Batch of 2 targets.
Target 1
Amino acid sequence: AAFYGAVEPGNPVVDSLEAELRDVLGFLRRLRGAGDAEPQRHDLQRRGANTLFNIWNKYKPRLPDWYYNDKLLKVGDSLVQIKEYKLALRQCYGRYLQQFSSVNPDDITDDVHKFKSTFFPNGFRDKNAAFTFHALQERNVCIYQMVCSNDRNLQNQESLQTCFNVLSSLRLTMQVALPQENLCWLIYNGTIHIYTICRHLMMIGQSAKVLEYLLWASICMELSIPLLSVHYLTWRATLYAAVSQCYFDCQAGIHGEVFARRGLIKIDELKQLENISSSQENSETRKIFREATFKMSVMIFKRAVYESRRKPKNYFRPKLRVSLKEAQNLSWPRTTTERLLTEMFDCTAAQFLAILEALSDSSRHVLRPAPTVPDEIEIRDVISELFFAGLEILSGNSIKNQKKCWRGAQTSTKYFFVIIAEEKGVSGDAAVKFIKLAFSYEEWDVFDSAVEFVTNFLQAQDDPRWKKAEMELKLLTLMQPLLFPRKFKCGFSVSEPTTREARVPRGSDKKQTVRSECCSGSLKYGKPSHELTVLATTVFTCVSTSKQNMQPDKEILFDVITFLWQKCKTGLQQIQTSGSGYFRCIHKYKACKWVYVLWIINEVIQKSNIADTDVVMVIEVTLNLTAILENTADS
């Protein structure tokens, strides 16, 4: 390339390389968007990989090292953007790192001196040092993404260990780069990668193990001078909140609150410095400080709302307590919990999110509901008051006393609901999460009251993304009488913003019929209930008519299918063990409906992404359906 002059656009060698890279990257982008069959797609990917391999071998001796290395990393970044992680790892980042030694970077995760001597023999002032840091960091990202593509739920122990190795490698890279202020971009990107991986691991119960990495990411943001600016405060507060959440997941709430209060102090220190250095605070800066303070306050409230009510064991508890049914006619704030909400948060949207966080528990599952079981009566009271307050905010009744932060409210039947598009309103996502929490805690009065007007709101929206939430609420409503041949309790109702009281109906006549059938046990022997069939048909419709990313939440979908399979398996076993010639008399014993339910279970598993969650169940469903169909065909 040097023979033709400067190595820049216009040089024949450079232009030829750029043209060939554009062709192969364009080919891979089109391949990513195409819907080819798996074998054909694999062959095309291999063709793209071979082409890229040949390009690097062809141009390496023709280009100076600095240009060749820069192009390696840029192409690698482009491949990451189109999610070709394996190709980026092997043909770009891995190829770049081969120049140092044959040592596997995975073998150097805790030895700083060996790491420096291997990858930075010329020190950090070398012009290629930034390239090397970038290649090491992106290599780890690619490894993590490749693990996720093969084992999204990280069920394999090897996959889990690989993720922790990636976290250790990212931490080591950041540790070495931290003293170099010009590499602050690497520290910032590293904290993002660590947070992403740790949040994934927290979702599968690994909070105790990821805590140290999130702590490290938080401290790095504090130790890097350029990252201490207001511009990065929102992200720093997010890391603080993640650390606090880890402590709560580990049942160490006191440490979570202490860390959140520490974060609040750090935010206040930065605010004081900002006031000194700037004579006039702009609206954007105020917004950033407000958001960061809110995140910390929510984590403090998460524990304070309970601990402020705990009493010593020998403390005399008065029998007379304010009834929520009586309190609903009072003006906001009506309970101790609502007064604390009003003191800590100055708008209803913030109060609602604080309620959600206080009720959230990583050990709870939506469709495996259980009532609150703490020994302290006060804690049970707090949980009831939180739902009571959340329902009041969601219904719009607290607007009478709190007029801040409500914009874009629209009337939905008898209730007010705040549209998600408005920044300061209660979002639709938050409302759906509140209903799921009510289901999880078996707060049936709250669930019945909230689900009706939230569903009305969702049905009125044109945005297809709301259809996913609507399907989830529909599944919860159908599962409710099946999980609980219900013990309906009379409870408080939602009152309209006017003085008139309006009770939400406890269920339609159809629902009452469903419950009476479930409770009576009058179903014919061997026949699935009508409600079970309706649930199976509904979940099949939800999966069949939706795109993969618009299907109901994976956890809910899996629990529904597991429930259907347990019922189906029990029903079939009862008929099979009755000695009545099951396969020959399939119609007589109503088994055809069980076969229909079993077929739906199999179809939903195939059309959704839950097959890897419980492989044993998938095998059982497939074998049972195959056996039934074969025997029916022979009979």
Note: The beta strands are 409-412, 415-418.
Target 2
Amino acid sequence: MAAHKPVEWVQAVVNRFDEQLPIKASQQNTHTKVSTEHNKECLINISKYKFSLVISGLTNILKNVNNMRIFGETAEKNLYLSQLIILDTLEKCLAGPKVMLDASRFVHSNESKLNQCMYGKIEPKSYTKSVVFCDIFRLISCSLFLLNVSSSSHGNRAQQPKDTMRLDETMLVKQLLPEICHFIHTYREGNQHAAELRNSASGVLFSLSCNNFNAVFSRISTRLQELTVCSEDNADVHDIELLQYISVDCSKLKRLLQETVFKFKALKKVAQLAVINSLEKATLECKDVLCYLQAFWNWVENYPDEFTKLYQTPQTDMADCAEKLFDLVDGFAESTKRKAAVWPLQIILLVLCPEIIQDIAKDVVEETKMNKKLFLDNLRKALAGHSGSRQLTESAAIACVKLCKASTYINWEDNSVIFLLVQSMVVDLKSALDWWPRIDAVYCHSVELRSMFSETLHKAIQGCGAHAAIRMTPSLTFKEKMTSLKFKEKPTDLETKSYKFLLLSLVKLIHADPKLLLCNPRKQGPETQGSTAELITGLVQLVPQSSMPDIAQEAMEALLVLHQLDSIDLWNPDAPIETFWEI
């Protein structure tokens, strides 16, 4: 029975999902919200095995909802909520969720309900106020799971999580993209709903580009090609902005750079500026301040190992593309205004060329590399206030901040020159920015930092399956005990990875400035000694952790710094020597 009705079952879930949307339901209450979540969960579950059917259904629902005419505040709110629900469901379906149900047992025990509902023996509407109807839709997803397993075992289905290579899916992506782009392109500043919808839509686009990059890239490439022959000053450049929302790894970033290099010269000045502004998108409210080269940061933050490897084994093709685009953009920057616009982009392009950074640090520089050396010299002059333009000084400051951020992903031994460059820039950067923060302003938060270190240490070690850290805090209040009970469950792999990243950052803070975690204003000697003992015990426990080698190494460095004379005095200012020997 189950083998013959997958399409009808999927459509039944899609229809039910549509009917329960706030814009369609007559009234919203706790039951309808729970029902909507159940339907949403089913669609996400089913999408892993009937991807095209689910995405097609959700795309049609989104189209219809977007085209609805509404009147009144209540209807507008329900429309907005419905769009958010659909976009969130799409994002999770595209991300590829896991099956969480015991499908076989559930189907065999409940298949009669499905048969009765599908063939009209039971009116589905009669179930809207019971859990049974939700069970039916859970049954559908489980049955489809069994169908998938069965067909896979007989060799009738490729061993892939989704049918990502099918032509019909490519067509679906082309149908879905315009609907998603609608939310991104029609964003209105000051409109809270529009901002949230754009954020949700950008999440869908990111997930979409993970498995369907070619379709998204094709839209961007096509628009670039159209702009090469466009003579209008107010040409539509919205599709270029999609660059900042897509998922890119090393190979995809190279494709983006190659495409831009290939077509940049043919673009008119207005289109060139649009491309630069799209790569270096201003995401702050102030139009003068450019934020991140988002495509680059998407790569670095999602594939940090690839970026680190770039400095261990330089990739000539990546560096060639980046250098060519640097030169093209350098030629574009004829005026002060244009220089200010492109400097943040140019510093990132230079970061993609490790060997060039090495070359321009030498006394004798090749003629082809002189413009890169001149660029860095101009940055320094602007930071020192010698450029005669506040706009250039601000742009140089932003470029240097980007350089500093990028350098945190690189190991010192892989390219010490970039760190020397950063150090020289930071000196000028501090002089240029009168608001440069002082580290002593954070000392008053030492208690919070120690608490964060202790909790993060506990969760990271728990996630690795090791023994939890020794807690030496004298006593906890009832509220603190109740709060700690919430964290008893073992963290997921993703959570453990996040805890490790945070823990590494905290240990680096201790290494950089021990006073950040040793400052104990208004605390008595015994309390200060206890907090210091817990901090050192935690670091000692990290040293033998083979599952966290980076953190273990940093913990050793931090312990060495803590045992310097100046640091020992902070262990317990009331009795430093006694505290030292006791600990």
Note: The longest helix spans residues 73-95.
